[in-house]
Design brief:
Elements: H1 20-28, E1 37-38, H2 43-52, H3 65-72, E2 85-88, E3 94-99, E4 104-111, E5 114-122, E6 129-133, H4 139-150, E7 153-156, H5 158-168, E8 175-178, H6 182-190, H7 193-202, H8 204-226, E9 232-239, H9 245-265, E10 269-274, E11 292-294, H10 306-313, E12 317-319, E13 322-323, H11 333-347, E14 351-353, E15 355-356, H12 366-381
Length: 382
């Protein structure tokens, strides 16, 4: 008995006494007997403290991330397995990095069709590197990027797979996320939102060619994925309403449907990361071919309710569901318990309960245990 919460612990159905890799696979492929899994993403909480040189609070001081998950008795969505897929540029591409003045550095890709360059700034307050000059700033950059993507190949790295497995074994099933889709690639990695919107209007044919090249490269990656032992695949798009329904229908929905067709043919479970404000896109969820959607952010943090999310997903999986702000002291513990129970009531067994999107560096990490007890009690009740 956990005296603080009044909940029973130590049962065979509790996460601490389960093979969480097996449970993860059983849940997504429908073999868990109705049980669900608790997979809070706490990477931001952990890495922010490490970056700031702040020790983890006791009793977690000095722990690695896998050790922290074990101590908290929960599962992880182990995207570290992305290291198993190696991207290869054409041999004619020469990559270089140069330190500039202050905290800036330059990346250059010299190719037979021109040089593509980007400049980033390192900040002392954050591990994020700010793009000062994006990798694509105009038509010529995009043409070079398309040339590179057309010639990009992928390979499997068994040593990396084994290394990640040894570190994370028993905490979740091997999982990976595929490259961002068309305009999401432009928004997040290549150009930024404003410049990407202008590009779609100013030189649409060049954008279309770049998207075709990206899709060719990503289908080569999917061939490697399908031959691999990794069975849970995520489209790491960070999709939100900055992508309008019209843009989604034109540039993303057909790619999702094609990717899902290829991945489902190899027996993969497929989901995508939609976070922030995504209410305008939820009506398309059932048309995508996805098995589930990750990180849909409910009110009061996002723009949808759990009820609206269930209406949109139907029998698709929800991955996550608890707003990250509920781990802050602004909200009492009963709020997060009630939210966890509502997620279970509405979505189980098509549920991988987690945090929409990540516990912040100011979050109360002990609330991870609290939600875990709710999940363990539910699984035990079955």
């Amino acid at each position: 008995m956990d005296t603080a919460s009044g909940m029973v612990t130590g049962r065979p159905t509790d996460h601490r006494h389960s093979d969480l890799e097996r449970l993860h696979l059983d849940v997504v492929f429908g073999h868990s007997g109705g049980k669900i899994i608790w997979q809070p993403r706490i990477l931001a909480w952990y890495t922010d403290k490490i970056f700031a040189g702040e020790p983890l609070p006791a009793p977690y001081t000095g722990m690695t991330l896998p050790q922290l998950y074990r101590a908290l008795g929960c599962s992880n969505r182990i995207y570290e397995y992305n290291a198993s897929f190696q991207r290869r540029e054409d041999a004619a591409v020469h990559f270089s990095r140069h330190d500039l003045s202050g905290a800036d550095y330059e990346l250059c890709w010299d190719t037979p069709v021109g040089t593509q360059r980007a400049v980033y700034r390192v900040h002392k307050e954050s591990p994020w590197h700010e793009p000062i000059k994006w990798p694509i700033a105009g038509e010529q950059d995009m043409k070079i990027a398309a040339w590179r993507a057309e010639r990009t190949t992928w390979s499997w790295d068994q040593a990396a797979f084994d290394r990640v497995g040894a570190e994370w074994r028993g905490l979740g099933a091997p999982t990976m996320f595929i490259c961002r889709t068309t305009i999401q690639q432009l928004y997040v990695e290549d150009m930024g939102v404003e410049a990407a919107i202008y590009a779609l209007h100013d030189y649409p044919s060049v954008c279309a060619r770049y998207f075709e090249a990206l899709n060719l490269s990503q289908e080569r990656l999917i061939a490697v994925i399908n031959a691999s032992p990794i069975r849970i695949i995520n489209f790491g798009d960070n999709l939100a309403s900055s992508t309008s329904p019209a843009l989604f229908e034109k540039y993303i929905l057909p790619v999702y449907q094609r990717r899902c067709e290829l991945l489902h043919a190899a027996g993969k479970f497929v989901c995508s990361h939609w976070d922030g404000f995504c209410k305008p896109l939820l009506p398309y969820a059932k048309d995508t071919g996805l098995d589930g959607i990750e990180a849909i952010t409910p009110l009061p943090q996002g723009d949808v309710t759990l009820r609206e999310t269930k209406q949109a997903l139907g029998d698709m999986f929800l991955l996550d569901g608890i707003p990250a702000v509920y781990f802050e002291s602004t909200f009492n513990e009963q709020t997060i318990v009630d939210c966890a129970k509502e997620c279970i009531d509405r979505f189980a067994p098509h549920l991988i309960l987690g945090v929409s999107d990540e516990v912040s560096s100011h979050g109360d990490i002990e609330r991870v245990r609290l939600v875990g007890q709710v999940v363990d009690d539910y699984n035990a009740s079955l």
